[in-house]
Amino acid sequence: MPKILGITSRTKGVSVKVAGELNRPPYEKSNAGAALYEHAKGLAAELGFKLLDVFSGGGSDGNFTAPHTATLDGLGVDGKGAHTHYEQLYISSIEPRARLFYRLYQTLQ
To answer: Which is nearest to 51 in space by CA: 40, 65, 67, 64?
Structure first.
C-alpha cells in the first residue's frame, strides 16, 4: 500500500480520507527526446551553463507527450522548494534559460 493511503490524523475528532488515482503515465524518454536533449545541452554549453539530465520522479504534461514526440521537461528557471509554500527561483537563472528557449526556437524551426 502506498504511504499516502495510510495517512491518519494526529488531531482527536479529525479523520482523513485519501481518494484519487494515478493520472499520469510514466515519463519515458524516446530516442527523439534524447536527441533533443543533446541539442539543448549543446546550446546551453554555448551560452555558458550546464543543462543537466535528471529524473525528478514527478509527473507533468510531458509524460503524455513523450511517447508521441520529442519532449523536453523541466527547462524552467533553477530554484528550490518546487511546488511548496516556500518555492523560490534563482533570479540569476532567468536570463540564461530565456536565452536557451530563444536559441531552441531559432534552431528548431
So the answer is: 40
